[in-house]
């Protein structure tokens, strides 16, 4: 059985829901949405480890079309964000458009539309909108001996909430965002943690507070107050761009604050030295926590300031040769963010897959459309993430661009992104990125693709600049004449 729609969205996380809302607002109503899992949520459905929360203020980490007065804390816990997305899907009517348990197994452009294969039937769509996310497929290091570990070995994105923690010896591999959230919660639950740290993180105080019943009631009664709060949070976020991107004065002030935070919470000089970063502030993701350092300083945590090299039975052996006996191993090692897993399932006009097109790193026009892939829009793809503000703002802008572009599409018209526009866009990205801490800061980060050395994940500018760019798009990013001499894919 096959289905024909005007627009097909792949993924039901923040990006997929935002795209559906924007399409409908623009008058594009013949849409469908497929989701490989059995629920909405994306990142917040997959990541259920103890302590998971957002490090962007909740009122800024919500869809502009669906503000939420009921957040319990300034920084929302993961399950609360997941429930918010369920509420959005229900109240907006988008849930009725979603086919759950329906992964995209293949898609190819043929003649004038996308032919998408799923286990429940083919879907033919004039436009394909990829909202597949980037924080769902774990990055697992190849550690010799892993297959012989007799205990539980997992990743933060595959954590089983039923896992017993109290009294267990748990190794956490990594001190990025998930590791910094996980370790204090494991300690609170009675575990002894061995923390493997390859690279120390820059950590700033988190702060934040719980919202009272009175505050939540006031937000519900006065939406304009929520809007004002969101605008203040946005302005605060934009101000962080300078320190994250490498402005010398701003980075110095922020790094001084982080080092003072470290000194206040870690009195032991040797431990403090091990936790002090040796690269520029902002080069890697800056973390927020008030309880990570106290947990590491406690008797419940053993810091191993080196990488995990191999596993022998219950024994984990570090790069320094130190041996640690553990019962459970949790990899807090992030995701394959620069190599999008869906790309191999998308075949364009010439028979090239999106993975082939991105074999040296992700490229695009306006971070959203890709030459060789007509009528395709990629949300949360090349240079669409942020290191200083809410990425929800970025994907909403991409969704709005896709919606108004498709709303103006005439019968028979095909949107073919211009390869020259892609080359120019990537050149401008590279020029803007070149002096930033992400490139020059002396660290290995997940923003830069190792294959090319290019900044392919982050947008090297402010949200305001991205908005201006997207809203100024006038169609000149697309070719005016049909491509000639192109081998079309076959079904």
From TrEMBL:
Gene3D superfamilies: FAD/NAD(P)-binding domain (3.50.50.60)
Coiled-coil segments: none
Entry-linked Pfam families: Pyr_redox_3 (PF13738)
Signal peptide residues on this chain, from the entry's feature table: none
Domain of life: Bacteria
This protein's name: NAD(P)/FAD-dependent oxidoreductase
Organism from which the protein derives: Microbacterium sediminicola
